[in-house]
Design brief:
DNA polymerase, domain 1, 8 strands, about 45% helix, 3 domains, 9 helices, 3-stranded antiparallel sheet, alpha+beta, single chain
Length: about 300
């Protein structure tokens, strides 16, 4: 560890710069600066004291590294790997559940017994579903797997933990009769909602909600009867290029009875565009469900 003192020509006082080495977690160079010493000797004495303090500080002693600080650094890496919505969800559970209960423990002191007690408490409190508890555990487990990989801990304390059994809920799927009744009854309404074509795409093409909301007319080849899934709308109302996973980027055949509905919907959107093109402040977003500003 090295440092230097130098007289500041502007203030006429002495400043010090101390090189505290690289942060063991981030690998970034850590410099500490102090200013305003009246004499050079005061600056040198301060640097000697600072060196002593740094040697005892937790960032130079991995045995004192807390789980909170380790996971804060780990999440920087995770932000590169995860979708933004997934990353935000994981951060929320870390901040509100993992950190308050386990964050103060030293990483090297985290044991399977502590982790099991943590899981047991979540189950007993009854504030989280079995699925959510599994998700919280996966976040912690992934972090500790990384700690094991970089040899911060010898053994992964999340191995062998007993988790609550996830109760499978029966999915209530509409029958073909119910779908046909919905379609027939919808057509009898005085003013059919503009979401109706989206419902039909979901029924007949099996698209996810985010995929349907992310559709643009250029994603529909109505001449050849094909829908191309190229992007999705996230829960944060952000457009995500691609789909939920690689297998979801695909083309889907459009049933013949759906094509006239999509053609009619495209005609409505184009007519709205024509009517609004001359209005001040109007704007056009070329998505399948877009409406013009001011359209009633």
């Amino acid at each position: 560890m090295k440092g230097s003192v130098k007289k500041n020509q502007n203030t006429k006082k002495w400043d010090l710069v101390f090189d505290a080495g690289n942060d063991p977690m981030s690998g970034k160079r850590r410099q500490i600066k102090r200013r305003g010493f009246l004499t050079k000797q005061e600056a040198l004495d301060a640097m000697t004291l600072l060196k002593s303090e740094v040697l005892q500080d937790e960032f130079t002693d991995l045995s004192n590294l807390s789980l909170e600080r380790f996971m804060d650094e780990w999440f920087i890496e995770r932000k590169i790997q995860l979708q933004s919505s997934t990353y935000e969800t994981h951060r929320i559970y870390f901040r509100t559940v993992i950190k308050p209960r386990l964050g103060h423990f030293k990483v090297q002191k985290l044991s399977p017994l502590l982790v099991q007690n943590f899981i047991n408490e979540l189950v007993q409190e009854g504030n989280y579903s079995e699925y959510t508890i599994h998700l919280i555990f996966r976040i912690l487990s992934s972090a500790m797997k990384k700690a094991t990989t970089i040899k911060l801990v010898r053994d992964n304390p999340t191995i062998g933990i007993t988790l609550p059994k996830i109760k499978r809920k029966e999915i209530n799927v509409w029958t073909s009769e119910q779908i046909n009744h919905f379609i027939a009854a919808s057509k009898q309404t005085k003013r059919l909602t503009r979401c109706f074509p989206g419902f039909l795409i979901g029924f007949f093409c099996g698209c996810r909600e985010g995929e349907i909301l992310g559709l643009r007319f250029k994603d529909l080849d109505l001449d050849n009867g094909v829908i191309y899934i190229r992007q999705t709308l996230t829960q944060k109302a952000e457009i995500k290029t691609g789909a939920k996973n690689k297998s979801s980027i695909r083309s889907i055949s459009i049933p013949q009875n759906l094509i006239p509905v999509l053609i009619a919907h495209r005609k409505i959107i184009r007519e709205e565009k024509r009517k609004q093109s001359g209005k001040r402040g109007a704007y056009w977003i070329p998505y399948f469900w877009s409406r013009w500003s001011g359209d009633s």
